[in-house]
Queue: 2 jobs
Job 1
Amino acid sequence: MKLSQRVSQVQPSATLSINAKAKALRAQGKKVISFGVGEPDFDTPHHIGQAAIQAVQRGQTRYTAVQGIPELKEAIIDVVRADYGLDYSPEEVLVSCGGKHSLYNLFQAVLDPGDQVIIPAPYWVSYPDMVRLAGAEPVIVDCPMSTSFKLEPQALREAITERTRMLILNSPSNPTGVHYTPEELRGLAQVLLDHEQVVIVSDDIYYRLLYKGAQWANMAMVEPRLKDRTFIVNGVSKTYAMTGWRIGYLLGDADVIKAAGKIQSQSTSNPCSVAQWAAVAALRGSQEDVQTMRQAFARRREYVMERLGRLPGVTCPDPNGAFYVFPNVSAYYGKKAGERSIQGSLDLSDYLMEEAHLAVVPGAAFGEDRCIRLSFALSMEELEEGFDRLEKALGRLS
Ligand SMILES: Cc1ncc(COP(=O)(O)O)c(C=O)c1O
């Protein structure tokens, strides 16, 4: 069967093949520890589940407004006012089936063939492919480890051309866990003010998962003159352990929101009605569970950094957010274990999976082959065992 040109430009997800291998090993009865997970290991807080049950019992099970129920839009507006200090009207909010869907709708609404989108690397795996699906061209800007993999103003200036239509920023970052300080954002804002055609996507999906008193901001907050062309992407997945519920949202210019809503109206229609009511409870209800989860992640982060610090030749930017670390393991490239030679992050990931039954995501999937991504959304016991295995497996390479 002939496939479309569009789909042939899209890469299959690297994490899927890791998961498939992990599954195959588990089916053989092996205990695989997965550092590959991209979601909290906690259950959705009880009161949120209860709100969904009540929504079903009240019969809130029919189509809703395509752009989301007014109650959820209002809750989002209130949270954004409280957390960001920014005001939005309901016409500037679109609720979708996860932050990923929000990004997809936005790209479809504003990008054309020939447009360029600047994506600082390392980047979240889905950005380049979603940009390609919109017919535009991803322009990957490699960010050095010396800046903790963050984009610097000079690099941004050099990457912008007449065709640049969009810049994607993700802070705290998947895969590095690092975040941009308000000063760093102001530096980038100075460059963006000179280029009116560039819209900014601020993927804030991990903004509530911050550690060590890190001060968070986004572009619209630090530079009010850029608010009109900044699009905020957020959602309940990571903050409230609600990855399966599929509720994300997009805030920004009303015309673009309307256009993105039109795309949504001809694809998914409204996000799940019950999940929307659960999201209202998440945003409006007690935030105690969020605090408990954040504290658990903070303790695990400390442990993970301590264990990484003990691995010879491994360096790692200190992450202040999300639940990932992105260590540079390239000191092990060129080494061997028996007949197996490790030439890059894909080889190392295969080796760890096959020899240590440890799933990690190769840095190549995020545009940085020197690193691997480890998630610490695992229990302390699993983290301990995982690091014991990692230490031993790396120690066997010579
Ligand atoms: C950087 C980043 N943005 C967006 C998302 C999308 O999350 P969701 O679609 O579950 O809201 C993810 C999920 O892994 C992510 O890591």
Job 2
Amino acid sequence: MTVKTSVLVVGGGLAGTSAALFLAWRGVDVTLVEKHPGSSPHPRAVGFNARVGELLRAVGLDEKLPPSRVGKGFGIRRVRVSSLVGERFEETFWSPPAQLSNIEYSPCKGVGVAQDRMEPLLRDEARRLGADIRMSTRMLEFSQDDDGVTAIVQGDGEPYEIRADYLVAADGHRSPIREALGITRTGRGYMHTSRSVLFRAPLEEYLKDGIGQFVVDGVGFLTTYGDGRWVLMLEDREYEETELREKIFQAIGRDDLDVEIITTGRWTISAGVADRFSSGRIFLAGDAAHTLPPSRGGFGANVGIEDAHNLAWKLAAVLKGESRPSLLDTYDAERRPVASLCHQQIFARNDGHNRDRTPEDAPLIDNNAMHYGQLYRSDAVLGAGPELPPAQLPEQWNGQPGTRAPHAWIEPGKSTLDLFQRGWVLVADHPQWEEAAQRAGVTYERIEQLDVFGLSEKGASLVRPDGYIAWRSVDLPDDPTDALAKAFRKSSAGTR
Ligand SMILES: Cc1cc2nc3c(=O)[nH]c(=O)nc-3n(C[C@H](O)[C@H](O)[C@H](O)COP(=O)(O)OP(=O)(O)OC[C@H]3O[C@@H](n4cnc5c(N)ncnc54)[C@H](O)[C@@H]3O)c2cc1C
């Protein structure tokens, strides 16, 4: 038996499941294999940033997700304590401290849902949109040729073959696929190993001041998933259950509470970015492409979901014959620098993860710039040169090609971001641009907020299906139809 599919995704964690979701949403025939029957009962990520909220809003999932409990501008607050109920010492702020700004960067807030609840939500939606998701199915081997990829997988029964046009390797930080492809990694490498115990306890009353992370003197690091579940991170050694209970009570500072131990974990914390994000028809996404240790930047899972989003529209465009395969080269060109910048910023920050070695000597970049203001430089962007910084605040970019199209409310409840994602869009407010858009076959959206795109009233911006600006003309050129047609063909690697 050979199963035929356009895209095979290996790995059903956050990156793989997001890839299946975004591809299915774009009408791509996608099959995902995951060796486990479901999500790990021990969540890792505690929440997701507003940029991921935007990607989920675009596919209509945001209303199913609870809002983040993280206070605006502060991120997850952390304090050193003698115990949860005991004395509180200094609070360790983000580094750099979040700049409180009156500018509203996004229509979305962060998403306050633990990883083991997020994954099934994404999976169910991907299935509803037509993705073929095969849990308890392991990929055993793969090979690629000029026309596609062949994988041998095994579920309950005999091994069988899946033949796909492309393969997304979202098989986690150890990524057997990356290793088999001989793709090396650059970065800090192994940092440390820690143990964790996940437990349920009625401790909500200690969360009222908005602090959710506690460095407990002499015990370890205590944090909450915001749903009655807590995790205590401990040094790496074996623990009997009675000792784990003692540690939990010590961390809480009370032993008169009902504590249910759910599970334990052992985590290898390491950091590294793959030296190539693709090889032929195979694309690395998520931790397979970059292992970014947990920090309050929340770069790990969030960056992986954004990889999947960047890749999905490109695969969809190439599979539909609208773009040449060279468009897929821009995945590495755009996402690898983002991962490297996140790697750099994690170690430039005092978030506790520079403890293994010396901090990175690099300028600190504002969190909002990291979340909303990363610059893509690739053939799918026109006019983003090497002289530009890798990330800035949206108001500093002011509609620069290569950055995420800025958010502004068009009407109550409707953001400029809601205009994008389905396809290529030209934003402008001029009849000649409307005609040019019709001729080029891109959707025309008339908006009044041209200033946030850095445009004069006669200017136009071409926005890609991932909501990034591909090109802009600040004013009206002599021949707008020709200018747009050329820009569209070039940035989309268009076949027409
Ligand atoms: C303790 C901890 C806390 C964290 N907290 C945060 C946080 O708060 N915020 C944040 O953004 N990130 C956080 N992270 C990072 C985040 O959890 C990871 O970045 C994210 O889970 C990676 O997702 P992924 O889908 O790339 O990989 P994974 O979740 O590792 O998924 C890979 C999947 O591939 C499957 N697989 C592998 N090989 C095969 C095969 N041959 N066949 C079939 N399936 C296969 C595996 O079973 C696995 O399910 C944390 C990480 C840790 C360790």
